[in-house]
Amino acid sequence: MRWGNILSIEFNALACTAGGLALRVSLFITCYNDTLFPETGKSVVKVLERLGHTVEFPAGQTCCGQMHYNTGYQSEAMPLVQRFVDQFREAEAVVVPSSSCVAMMKDHYPKMAAEIGDAKLIADVDALLPRVYEFSEFLTRGLGLEDVGAYYPHRVTYHASCHGLRNLELGDGPLRLLKAVRGIDLVPLEGLEQCCGFGGTFAVKNADVSSAMLSEKTTAILNTKAEACTACDNSCLMHIQGALHRQRTGVKTVHLAEILAGDEGAAR
């Protein structure tokens, strides 16, 4: 059975389960958010608790292994696959505020488990991955929601990160969530599906190409006159923010979860 069919079944079942009932959601925070952007994790918790769900944080979680895998250290990433399974195997749903980390899990964990011929790990990965969701995906597809009760009275534009767009096929889900935010002035970004040029070590190994792509992205952002640029991945936003800061534009970057966590009380 294809992943898309499995996920469709899981999404439908979860949406039915979530109809007025509280879920026990496990948060996989990711390395970037844990060390550099803790407000994103706090915002995920705030949104999910506002919706009536319980959020758990397995303290033994570590990296998903993407950085190791993408730089050729596939064997070194294997213990991290096992670690993830061990930490989250009992979760009703695993929510991840990063499409690149979820793409790593869904695209590579099954292949990695199969390559070492570990039948138990293969079965564990296959059982767990349908319950793993990128944050916006969990809200729109998992819970069937668009309006999460957010308030964010600012002019905002949205950048679609590559992994969310191409690997997870999030489509317009994040935009539908943003359009439902009260007070927001959401302006379209020209070339919103165009890569920002980060790509992890791509930005280091291909610095000139990365810089050219980043320049096009920041120019498009500035043309919107937005106060903030949002996305589902802080890795993209960190890359974009560096350029915006160097140009002294005053435009900030903010993860989608932080916008959705906004409320009228906090805005006063």
Q: How many E strands?
A: 8
* Percent strand: 5-15%
Q: Domains counted in the coordinates: how many?
A: 2
How does the helix and strand content classify structurally?
A: alpha/beta
**What is the overall silhouette?**
globular
Strand order of the largest sheet: 2-1-3-4
Order of helices and strands: HEHHEHHEHHEHEHHEHHEHEHH
Major sheet: 4 strands, parallel
Gyration radius, in Å: 18 Å
Domain Cysteine-rich: 25-106, 156-241
InterPro entries: Cys_rich_dom
Pfam family, one: CCG
GO molecular function, one term: oxidoreductase activity
Question: What does this molecule look like?
Answer:
- The structure is a single chain.
- The protein is an alpha/beta fold.
- The protein folds into two domains: 3-142; 155-267, Rossmann fold (3-Layer(aba) Sandwich).
- The protein is built from 15 helices and eight strands.
- The strands form two sheets. Strands 2-1-3-4 form a four-stranded parallel β-sheet, with helices on both faces. The protein has a four-stranded parallel β-sheet with strand order 6-5-7-8, with helices on both faces.
- α6 packs antiparallel against α7, α8 (135-142) crosses α10 (173-179) and α12 crosses α13.
- It is globular, with a radius of gyration of 18 Å.
Summarize the structure.
With 268 residues, the protein is of the alpha/beta class. 54% of the residues lie in helices and 11% in strands. Helix 13 (234-246) links the parallel strand 7 (228-231) and strand 8 (252-255).
